[in-house]
Specification:
Helix content is 50%, strand content 14%. By secondary structure, the protein is α+β, with helices and mostly antiparallel strands.
């Protein structure tokens, strides 16, 4: 018999893994680099290029992420029923590349934005693809088996039928006992997965809500400027730091203290850390809200008055607003009015009176020029300038046309359109014929300014210009987001890494359910973003944190009653029962025990290898994310 046994061809290995693994790792590098790079700026693309509001941008972002973790079912069908795993990865990687090329082409100005104003003229097309990675056939067979078990149990109801230890045992008339035992293990783990989407509901908002939060903050770190989408790199950097610290220091130290810090307890603590991260985000948002302008509601209007007349004016705005405005100055702040039709009177000789109609939900400035009879309304920005830039404009109080750097010629008494300028020092040259002067201004993040140019601008070498701050710059620093990123990353290490280890150790098949928890979490965010409509962003953060705390309590109760199992031992026992005839048992008992022990050892080695690979893959992904 030994002579007839064919020796298995030994697979070439490197560092304990087959050589083919490293080809997959290279493919994974490219895929993750593409995915994370695109996802990091996706919500800002929706917000500032497509001009969607925060809620819609957040909803579409999370819909995309949810699809990324749901569409693997399609890839699994292709892999298991048609092409096989490796061909599926290769072919769908090509589809992925085509999608990325299509998306890149769609951003070329000459195709979708001919006037280069940042808004697509007629169409934008994108293909979001992701290659797929888990076993759909197993899920489908689980579903059919469960239906059969329920049907069989219903058919055999009554006292004359013997009771079964588990309701799934009613399927043993048609299905293999080993498969039934595996399904039991899977269902036991999947039951624990029910509360898990709430963690991902919070975690994936670091790419949407937290990125939008960063756009209202200052990214000036002195030596470098951090953009809102770049602050997400704090997460992968902390992952690369915390995974070895937790694995080699924190968890062993807890174990030496005699504390039973089981995987499910770690996951519960990870959920609580994520909740604390959102409490920290809420505190940061409260500080940001203190610095944000008080924008009008949809039924209100806001008005500011600018006087470039050469005398101080008393301005009366019906019915009961009275302002004293000096020459080349503005009113202190915007007035909020609950009516749109107003009458403005100036104490000139003779008195000038003029009626205006304001824009609902808008901000406007009343410009009083050198000829007050020509006073007019100018529409202002009513939200923070995009991408942390600064919106600036000029009012020409000079007696002739004025040319300003990077702007068109401005007529006398006219106001230029807003121009967006980045953070840092900017130089402006004012010119009329042979006359010119230059001034510099250092800008922060997210401010809005109106520069008033008097008739004496050239004689004073630009010193007589006046600056009106329409919107204050962002004063809350992005460094305040680091604590919430530290907390959410600590929660990720506790929850995600431990959850995968737990799944590997407690069930033969698990990734389908694990990926679906991520997808469901993003779907919940989508629903809340569209239906919640809380008036304050910090309140939404507190709501999410409260939900996760409640869910973590439920999960801890479920974990308390969970009994840990050894799938390898259960499978070996069932194989032993099924693989022998009664008369052969005594004869082959010793041989089977030795074989089972060998299989168990091999499975334990593979399981440890798989867990090690999970940690390596996570760190690898985080390194790619950082890049």
């Amino acid at each position: 018999m030994d002579e007839t046994k064919k020796k298995k061809k030994k697979t070439a290995e490197c560092c304990g893994y087959p050589i083919s693994i490293f080809f997959i790792v290279v493919n994974e590098f490219c895929e993750r680099f593409s995915y994370y790079g695109m996802r990091a700026v996706l919500v800002l693309y929706f917000r500032y290029f497509l001009l969607w509001d925060d809620d819609l941008a957040t909803s579409i972002y999370h819909a995309f992420v949810a699809l990324c973790y749901l569409t693997p079912i399609l890839g699994a069908i292709i892999a298991d029923s048609w092409l096989g795993k490796f061909k599926t990865i290769i072919y769908l990687s090509i589809v992925y590349a085509i999608g990325q090329v299509t998306m890149a082409v769609s951003t070329i100005h000459d195709i979708t934005d001919a006037n280069r104003d940042g808004t697509p003229d007629n169409f934008t097309f994108h293909i979001f693809c992701k290659y797929f990675e888990f076993d759909f056939i197993f899920i489908f067979s689980v579903f059919i088996l469960i239906l059969f078990a329920i049907k069989n149990r219903f058919r055999h109801r009554g006292s004359r039928y013997p009771k079964r230890e588990h309701w799934m045992d009613w399927a043993d008339e048609k299905y293999d006992k080993l498969l039934i035992a595996q399904i039991k293990m899977v269902l036991k783990v999947l039951f624990l997965y029910i509360p898990l989407p709430m963690f991902w509901m919070l975690f994936d908002q670091k790419g949407s809500r937290w990125t939008l939060q960063a756009t209202t903050m200052s990214g000036d770190f002195g030596a470098f400027i951090l953009q809102p989408d770049q602050v997400q790199t704090v997460n992968p950097i902390l992952i690369l730091t915390l995974v070895p610290i937790m694995d080699r220091l924190i968890f062993p130290l807890i174990q030496k203290c005699g504390l039973n810090f089981s995987p499910l307890k770690r996951m519960t603590v990870g959920m609580l850390f994520a909740a604390m991260a959102f409490v920290a985000a809420a505190l940061v948002q409260i500080e940001i809200d203190k610095t944000l302008p008080n924008f009008p509601s949809s039924s209100e209007s806001q008005l500011k008055v600018v006087n470039i007349y050469n005398k101080t004016l008393n301005v009366t705005i019906s019915p009961n607003k009275y302002l004293l405005i000096y020459s080349f100055e503005s009113s202190a702040d915007y007035m909020t009015l609950d009516h749109q039709d107003i009458t403005v009177s100036l104490n000139t000789n003779p008195v000038i009176t003029k009626a205006f109609s304001l824009i609902k939900g808008g901000r406007q400035t009343l410009i009083i020029p050198s000829n007050p009879t020509l006073m007019y309304l100018q529409e202002d920005v009513k939200s923070k300038p995009k991408e942390g830039k600064n919106a600036i404009r000029f009012v020409n109080g000079w007696t002739a046309d004025l040319n300003i750097t990077n702007l068109d010629s401005i007529e006398p008494s006219a106001t230029s359109n807003y121009t967006l300028v980045s953070h840092g020092k900017r130089d402006f040259v004012l010119r009329h014929g042979e006359q010119w002067c230059e001034f510099s201004r250092k800008f922060g993040f997210g401010a809005s300014y109106t520069f008033l140019i008097p008739s004496t601008v050239f004689s004073t070498d630009c010193e007589s210009k006046t600056e009106v701050e329409d919107m204050k710059p962002n004063s809350v620093h992005m460094a305040l987001q680091i604590p919430q990123y530290f907390l959410i990353t600590t929660g990720e290490v506790m929850f995600s890494v431990t959850g995968l280890q737990f799944s590997y150790s407690q069930a033969p098949k698990k990734q389908a359910g694990w990926l679906c928890t991520n997808a469901v979490g993003n779907i919940i965010v989508l629903i809340v973003a569209e239906l919640g409509k809380l008036p304050k962003q910090w309140a939404e953060y507190v709501l999410f944190a409260s939900l996760l705390v409640a869910v973590s309590i439920i999960f801890s109760i479920m974990a308390y009653f969970y009994t840990y199992i050894d799938p390898a031992e259960i499978e070996a026992q069932i194989r032993k029962e099924q693989g022998l005839e009664p008369e052969e048992k005594e004869k082959e008992t010793l041989e089977m025990e030795e074989k089972d022990e060998g299989q168990k050892n091999d499975q334990e080695v593979k399981k440890k290898q798989d867990i090690r690979f999970v940690k390596i893959r996570l760190c690898w992904n985080m390194l790619i994310y950082t890049l």
